[in-house]
Amino acid sequence: MPGCWRLAAILLLLLSARSGLSSEIISLQVTNQDDQYLLESETYLQASVPSVFQVLMDYDNFTHLSSVYEESRQLGPGPDGAPRVYTLARGCILFVCRSVEKVERLDTEPNRRIVATVIPKLSNLEQGITEWVLKSDGAGTRLSYRMELVPKFWIPPLIGPPIIRHVLARNGTDALQRLENLARERDLAQPRMGH
User: Fold this and answer.
1) CA 176, CA 183: separation in Å to the nearest integer?
2) Would you put residue 153 in left (φ > 0), alpha (ψ -120 to 50) or beta?
3) For the ranges 36-40, 43-47, 145-149, the one whose mean pLDDT is highest
4) CB count in 10 Å sphere of residue 169
5) Where are the alpha helices (DSSP H) in 39-160?
6) Which domains are assigned to the chain?
7) pLDDT tens profile 57-90
8) What is the C-alpha R_g of the chain?
9) What is the mean pLDDT of residues 19-32?
10) In the structure, what pLDDT confidence band is assigned to residue 9 with cuts at 50, 70 and 90?
11) Terminal CA-CA length for the chain
C-alpha cells in the first residue's frame, strides 16, 4: 500500500505541474493573548467546493494532507450522537517540539461549513475550536479557516506569533497544495454532466 501512495503522489505532482494548480494563501494571522492562540487564514483552491469539503471530512485519510498529522481517524458518535474524530499532530517551532492530541465533536453544514470542537477531557488542550467555511469563487473554492486553542502544555514565550506565523505559512503552503491535489482528483473522477 505505501508504494501505491508514493506512485499516486508522484502522479499528482506531475498532474499539478502540468495543469498549473494555483492554491494560494490570501491572508494568515496568528495572535496570542492569555495563553489562547488564534489562527485565521483565507485561501483559494482551484477545486470545487464539494470536493474540498469531502477531502476535509475524510479524517481516516487526514494524514495525507500534512506531514504534521501522525494519526487521524473517525471515532464512533459521542453520547449526544454527534460524530467525533481523533487527530495526533506533531510539529516543531525552532527548538520546541510538541504533540497535540485531540478528540473533537463535528458539526457540519454540507459543502458550506465544518466546526470541530475539542473535547478537553480526551485531549491535551484546555479548549479549542476549528472552523472551515467554504464558498464558491469562480471555478474554485475560497476557504476561510479559524482555529482557537488553549494548550494544557507550556509554550515558551520566545515563540511568539511572528515565528508561528512563519512556520505555518511554510508548512501550510504544502498542505494547501495537497488539499487542492486531492480535491482536484475527486473533481476529475466525477462524471461530466451534459457532455
Assistant:
1) 10
2) beta
3) 43-47
4) 13
5) 49-57
6) 22-189 (3.30.530.20)
7) 999 998 888 888 899 999 999 999 999 999 998 8
8) 17
9) 74
10) very low
11) 35
